[in-house]
Every structure is written in structure tokens, then in C-alpha cells.
Recover the amino acids of this structure.
């Protein structure tokens, strides 16, 4: 630290101070440190395309991203042979479950630098999922109904929000002065699917007189997407059926929203650069096929219909998967639906990114960044320090440490290979779990393949 300029030391102290903010998830990916990769501008629109070529990302590959953050890993539920056990999940968790995940599927990406300007166009599918649940509901699924006959129990709450939308973005970066670059990315967003259930609770009680075990789910959820609500007054049944149309595969203008990314990059001196960006400042809307659905009523089981799901060799066994399917088949009979006619607004996860780079020599540099994300009433923070080195003229390697929530130190890396007409890159903030994804509670992965085309006249 003593060999770094005073300004860099101050920036590191600022990062550490920000890191004390409450954190429950993670954001940020070391691809932002790969200066030769055009997709580094996704973290800050002021970053320029430094390949001096037209960059075209391969659909479904270039810019693909996956972020997983939870207090459990997939191997809590699944074994090596993909056999599942809710009992093992329950025994491993020992606390309420919490999950937040984000994924991006790229469909189109173009970037081109001309003189002091960089322009870009991208089209991608994005999904944001967050939720939490009472761990006791896992034990309920694992045990089945038979052990609860004659008892009275309540499970919950369970909350889950899923938001799928398409993003069409136009970016523009300009070198305003020799030291200052400004960038903006304007986004048009099209909501495709939305599901939000908050504080679902399940009560179990026994009607001794009628010899019935009664399950009473209670809660309200909102849903929007390529669906159709069908109410059968004779059966007292409200069903939600898929209803795909050609328009669902393209742009849904009735669910259109907007967003913007803003950023700048400033050169303090010949060795030191700072950058700041705010991303996903915007919203999607819900107007097409939106309904609020309420669960109220009882699902009754006679003694003959009770089952257990914990021992496949014992009598009355029903596999948990089949039991859950049977329960879901009963939900339409206790569901009432109401069409939402007024336009609804859903905010995006807002991200702040502060970054500093110190050039050690022509081939080596130090990077520091802090990523702060706010979504659905919760804030998260993610601090990184990386060392970059160019190996020859084509290979760039970045490795370092990530401080997550002041609790975990995760080793990460990023690398890119730039040939004459193609570029490959891969970046993750948790290299240890990249090779063991089934044990990952925190993983942030980004990868891509870019095609490069010269725009210089021959």
C-alpha cells in the first residue's frame, strides 16, 4: 500500500468504508477488469472498445452470465446421481432458506469504436429471481401427511419473485477530453413473465369428527405472462393454462419499460484512472394478462388418502415429487383470480460500481472495485482487488480476491484470448466453486465468444 499513490490509498479506504453497508447477495464480475474485452463496458458504459475492430458477439454465447447467491448449495438437495432428498436438504440447512439469482442470455451484441466514440447495440433475455422460505416446510415435504394426522401445524412464510424480461440496449461512449470519457446506455425493456408470491403460509389441522386432515394454504400472488385464466363455476375451479402466441416470442409493447446506465472514466494521472457507473436505473411494466390470485379454503384428505414420503420401503409411501404434483392439482379448487387492469411498475436491481486502476508498467496493472446493488428493499456489497498482466499480445489474465459481505474471501480470475478474428473470455469471482458448482453458495460467472472484423480499408 505504501508504494501506491496517495489517491489510490484513499480510494481503497473509501471502498472499505462502503463495504460495511448491509449485504445479503453479491454482484460484480472480474470481466470488468479485462480491458481488451468489449463486454467490460456492461459494468460501465464509459469504457471503450479497445480492439479497434467491429465486435460481434455470438448469439447465446457472448455475454452469457449467471449469478447465484444463497445460503445453501445444490448438493443440499441433489446427490451425485441427481437423486434428491428433502430430508437431506432440511438437515443441511438448519435455518430459513434465502436465494437470489440473476441470469442473462445474449441474443445480439455489436460494438464499434470510431475515432473517439464507441457505439454498441445489444439484445438479451434477463431473469431475476429472489426468495426465502421457512426451512420447516422442507421437513413437511419429506415426511408427508401421515405423521401430521391429529396435529395442528403452521409452515411459512414462503416468498418468491421471478421476473423475466427482454432488454434492447443502445450504448454510446465519447472521449470528451484527453482525461475524461462519458458513457450512456439507453434501454427499452419488455416484460415477458412475472410471478410474485409474498408470505405464503400453510396450516395443517385435523377434523376429528369428520376424520379429515385439512391443508389450508393462504396467500396472494400476482402473475403475468403467456397464460390464460379459466374459471369453471360448476366445478368451482380456477385454472391457469399456458397460452403462447407469436407475439410472446418477440416484443410485448404493452409491458414496455425503460432503463438507463450512466458512467464516466477519468484519468487522474498517467498511471491512475478512476471510474464510476450507475446501472439499471429503470423499470418494466405489467399490463398484458395480469391477475391477482388468492388462495383460500381447505384441501381435505381422508385417512385412506394419507401418505408418508420418508421411507420408500414402508407402507403408504408416495414420492415427494408425486405428492407435490398432487397438491398442486388441488390448488385450482381453492383459488380465486382477479384481472388487474391498471398498469403495474416493477423496478430493476440498481447497481453502483466504483473502480480504480493503477498501471504498474505496460503489461501490469492493479484493479480495485466496489459493487453495490439495491433490489426489493435489500442492499448488497462486493469488494474486489485484482492484478492484471498481459502475456504477449493476445492473452490477458486477471486474478485476485473478492470480499463478500465481510464474511467470505473468494479467489477469482478472468482471462481473455484475442486472435486476429476471434476473441474468447471467461471470468468468475469464485474459482474454487467453478470446478465444484454443486457445492457453490456464491458464484458469478460470465463467458463469451466474440468475432472481430477490421473496419480499416485494405
Amino acid at each position: 500500500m505504501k508504494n501506491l499513490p496517495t489517491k489510490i490509498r484513499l480510494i481503497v479506504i473509501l471502498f472499505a468504508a462502503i463495504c460495511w453497508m448491509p449485504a445479503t447477495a453479491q454482484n460484480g464480475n472480474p470481466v470488468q477488469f479485462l480491458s481488451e474485452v468489449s463486454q467490460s463496458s456492461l459494468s460501465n458504459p464509459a469504457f471503450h472498445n479497445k480492439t479497434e475492430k467491429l465486435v460481434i458477439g455470438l448469439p447465446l454465447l457472448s455475454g452469457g452470465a449467471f449469478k447465484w447467491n444463497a445460503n445453501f448449495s445444490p448438493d443440499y438437495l441433489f446427490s451425485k446421481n441427481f437423486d434428491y432428498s428433502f430430508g437431506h436438504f432440511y438437515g443441511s440447512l438448519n435455518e430459513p432458506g434465502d436465494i437470489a439469482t440473476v441470469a442473462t442470455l445474449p441474443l445480439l451484441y455489436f460494438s464499434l469504436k470510431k475515432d473517439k466514440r464507441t457505439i454498441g447495440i445489444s439484445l438479451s433475455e434477463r431473469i431475476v429471481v429472489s426468495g426465502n422460505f421457512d426451512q420447516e416446510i422442507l421437513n413437511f415435504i419429506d415426511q408427508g401427511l401421515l405423521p401430521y394426522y391429529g396435529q395442528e401445524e403452521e409452515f411459512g412464510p414462503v416468498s418468491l419473485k421471478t421476473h423475466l424480461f427482454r432488454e434492447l440496449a443502445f450504448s454510446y461512449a465519447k472521449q470528451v477530453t484527453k482525461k475524461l470519457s462519458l458513457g450512456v446506455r439507453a434501454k427499452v425493456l419488455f416484460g415477458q413473465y412475472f410471478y410474485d408470491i409474498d408470505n405464503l403460509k400453510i396450516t395443517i389441522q385435523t377434523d376429528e369428527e369428520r376424520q379429515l386432515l385439512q391443508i389450508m394454504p393462504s396467500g396472494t400472488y400476482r402473475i403475468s405472462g403467456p397464460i390464460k385464466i379459466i374459471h369453471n363455476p360448476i366445478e368451482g375451479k380456477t385454472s391457469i393454462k399456458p397460452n403462447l402466441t407469436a407475439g410472446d416470442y418477440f416484443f410485448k409493447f404493452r409491458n414496455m419499460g425503460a432503463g438507463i446506465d450512466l458512467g464516466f472514466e477519468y484519468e487522474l494521472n498517467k498511471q491512475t484512472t478512476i471510474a464510476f457507473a450507475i446501472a439499471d436505473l429503470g423499470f418494466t411494466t405489467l399490463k398484458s394478462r395480469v391477475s391477482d390470485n388468492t388462495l383460500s379454503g381447505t384441501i381435505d384428505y381422508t385417512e385412506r388418502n394419507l401418505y408418508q414420503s420418508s421411507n420408500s420401503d414402508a407402507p403408504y409411501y408416495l414420492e415427494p415429487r408425486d405428492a407435490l404434483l398432487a397438491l398442486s392439482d388441488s390448488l385450482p379448487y381453492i383459488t380465486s383470480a382477479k384481472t388487474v387492469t391498471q398498469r403495474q411498475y416493477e423496478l430493476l436491481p440498481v447497481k453502483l460500481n466504483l473502480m480504480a486502476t493503477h498501471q504498474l508498467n505496460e503489461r501490469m496493472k492493479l484493479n480495485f472495485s466496489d459493487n453495490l446493488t439495491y433490489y426489493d428493499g435489500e442492499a448488497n456489497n462486493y469488494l474486489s482487488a485484482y492484478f492484471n498482466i498481459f502475456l504477449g499480445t493476445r492473452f490477458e489474465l486477471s486474478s485476485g480476491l473478492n470480499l463478500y459481505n465481510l464474511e467470505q474471501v473468494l479467489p477469482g480470475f478472468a482471462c481473455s484470448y484475442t486472435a486476429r478474428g476471434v476473441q474468447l473470455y471467461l471470468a468468475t469471482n469464485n474459482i474454487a466453486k467453478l470446478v465444484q458448482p454443486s457445492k457453490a453458495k456464491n458464484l458469478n460467472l460470465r463467458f463469451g465468444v466474440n468475432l472481430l472484423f477490421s473496419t480499416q480499408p485494405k
Q: What stands out?
A: The two ends are 48 Å apart (CA to CA). The first helix runs from residue 6 to 18. The longest strand covers residues 180-207.
